[in-house]
Each structure stands twice: as C-alpha cells, then as structure tokens.
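User: aldehyde dehydrogenase (NAD(+)). Structure?
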Amino acid sequence: MSAEAIPTHGRLAEQAAAALARLGVELPTSDGGVISRSPINGEVLAQLPSNTAEDVDAVIAAASDAFRQWRSVPAPCRGDLVRRLGELLIEHKTDLAALITLEVGKIESEALGEVQEMIDVCDFAVGLSRQLYGRTMPSERPLHRLSETWHPLGVVGVITAFNFPMAVWAWNTAVALIAGDTVIWKPSEITPLTAIACSALLDRAVREAGAPTGIHTLIQGDREVGERIVDDPRIALVSATGSVRMGRAIGPRVAARFGRSLLELGGNNAAIVTASADLDLAVRGIVFAAAGTAGQRCTSLRRLIVHHSVADELTARIADVYRQLAIGSPLGTETLVGPLIHGPAFHAFEGALQQAQSDGGKIVAGGRRVLAEQAPDAYYVEPTIVTMPQQSTVVQEETFAPILYVLTYESFDDAIELNNAVPQGLSSSIFTTDQREAELFMSAAGSDCGIANVNIGTSGAEIGGAFGGEKETGGGRESGSDSWKAYMRRATNTVNYSSELPLAQGVNFG
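Assistant: Predicted structure:
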C-alpha cells in the first residue's frame, strides 16, 4: 500500500483559484460565512459570503416571476439551453473535475466521471424535451376525447449533499429546466466552489441561449437558508439529497404546506455472494463499491452477505486487495482511496468500529487512520473489513466511511431476509451464476431496494435509469426513465365535440 504525498498548504487554494479563473469566475471575498476547506490537507480554499434569509425571499420572488415566462417557452426551445450547458460542461470538464477533487477528495477518474454524469444527463434531458408525452384514453361517452397533459410545476428548490456536489444538481436542474420549471439551488456548505463553478456555466448558457434571467439561482448558507426553501409555499417542489435525519425534518414540513418533496436519503447497501458466484468478478465489483470514494457514496457497499461455503475465501481475497490499495492525495495518479471529508466523518468511522467490536465483530483488514503525520488536519483511513456474527445494531446503520461488514448465510431465503433487514432501501446487488437466484433477487419477493443489480456492485448507476430507493431512503426518483414527472403537474382533459351532453357513468340529470 503506497501513499501519494500530501501537498503543503497554499498550493491547493492556488489551484482552485486558477481553475475558477479559467471558468470565468472571480470569487467574492469574505471574513467568514461559508468556508471551503479541502479534505486533502485541511487547507482553506476560500471564504465566501453567506446569503441571508432576506436574500432567499428575494430569490424566490425572482424565480416565481421567471417561471411565468419560462413555462410558456416551448419545451424543445428549453432544450436549447440545456444543450448549451452540456457543451460548456464538455469544454470545461477538466477544471470542473479538479474542483471536485480539491473540495471533496475524489480521485481524478471519479471526479471526471461525475462531470461526465452531468454531460450525460444534459444529453438525456435535451432528448426528453421532445418527449414529454401525455396520453389519450378511450372515453365511455360518444364523440368525446379523454386525455392527460403535463405542464410545468413551478419553482424547484434543490438541496444537495457534498459527496456528489455537481452531478445531483445536474440531475435535478437539467430535467427541471426542460420541464419548464425554475430552480433555486442550495448546495452543501462543504462544497461552495463546485457550486459556484456550475452556476457560472449555467448563467453563461442562459445568456447565450437568450433564456429569461432568474430561471436558476445559487444561494449559499447555513441551515436557516435551506429552511426558507423548505417552508416557502412558492417552492412547488423541494428535491433534497442527504441524511435520513435531514429527510425526517424536511418531509413533514413540506407536506404541512401541501408542497411536493423528492427525497434521496441514506443507503445501507448489501451485496449477496452465492455459492455459485464468479469470485474473480465479485472481488472486483465489491472492492470498488466498498472502497471507492472512501466509502462516501450513498450507494457504497456496506454489507456483504456471503454463502458460508465461500465466505472465508472471499473475505481473504478482498482483504488481500485492500492491502494493495494506494491511499493518499487524490491528486496522485496512483491513488485509489482519498480522504474522508472531515473530522466528524472520521469520528463516525472510529465509533462504528468500536461498536462493531463490542457487538462481536472482528476486524480482518484495515481499521486505522494513516498519513496523520503528513496531514494532521486531514483524515485518511484504511478501507476496513469486519466479520460480524449477526446483524447487529451497527450493521443496520449507515456510516459514511469505507467499512464493509461481512455476514454469512445458509439458505437463499436467509440471504434475502438479511438484505432487506435494514431501514434503508437504496441499492443492492447479487453475484451469482444461477439464473433462478438472479431472477428471484430481482422479483417482488427479492430485494426491497430501488436498485437491484446482478453481477455488478451497488454503486455506479447510469443516468438512463431512474435513481432512488425505498423505505428510509425516501422513495424519490431522479435522473432517467420517467423521473421527469416529479417536476411537472398532470391535467386530465375531456373534450366534447358532439352536440349532446351525456354524463359519465350513465348519470341522468335531466
């Protein structure tokens, strides 16, 4: 396990400023407010002003005004704006990825992959702009037409998390703009620079496409700023990505004012490895899903449910690969595992391992902080494997860190029960060469998650399929498929083109 050297303080702020300058962004300065701090070495990248509650009120009013214009623009013309945004993302892909690495700590290939997700979803949304289909149904009354049409919803408030600071914004924003909505974006306080970069490119696309000003606005700030979005009745839809705790606060508050919410919350994802599995394939899929992004994806693999006959061999093989993973600065070309986002994430990592051992778990690989002498203000940890004797309390909780709990099973029914025996329901997978097992896993009697994969890991979803999960994951769906319907309102239309007035269900009122 080699480690890429951690850069000294001062260099990263210069790199961030240079990347933003190439994007045409000059940062405002502030003594406090929102602080961007790199997880690579703990260096402060920038200090930015925070929006006030009054600012948010003005932004919502402007977005409401802009909506009245934008909703009447033909959807294919709205697609021209999103097409231009996609072109700008392609043009500035390298600098956008560099900012993700600096603010989040992702290795280069994962950061570039996140920008590619934005490009892909723009491409998807442009095609969607000509496919916002309604439907026509047979009417029971003669010479009547019964149909459904879809219309723009209103102002959409988008609240995003640190771990995908650009992609989740793009999932929501590209589709919302195509749908005819306007967008207000409240990013994580941890990743303000990536937000500024994305917003600047969309602002440029708005100008070049001749779209109305105010159809997208970035606001930065603390929890109070987000609460104004949640509680304001002018916000038709609140799309929020984050923890279950956050979702428990947002969902009831939006519902209390009869608004809509689209929640993407926690994941406690499992992979079942059966006796028939191709273990070479399984090891590759498991290692990326569990250790990639230092375990800080909502789809990261956290539970490995293995048939007892192959458990020892598989665990030993994964542990061997873990010992070879290069941990260090994500700026290094050989690095595969970067840092945790901050100190609280590290303390959660420590606490979970202590609890797992108290519950009878045994650490068989990893479990330690590394590079502390080089980077005392940053938090690098070894990806960790813990064999567990049972589905304990800690296994039912999501810890945003590279901890993989290994449980064994006897029967396939036991494996499905273990997969489903957690409150979260985002992603799941199975490694098997038995078609019957694969089909059962994907059936109504199988995984209860929003994502059920076969012979791949739990992470790395494509934008073409709707993304989201069940139970405490929130039930929302973003990105592909028909997720566009969450950003629009449906109207049922009946047209009478006869000279009579028959009533439905044969009612006679005459």
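The CA atoms of residues 291 and 402 lie 5 Å apart. The two ends are 86 Å apart (CA to CA).
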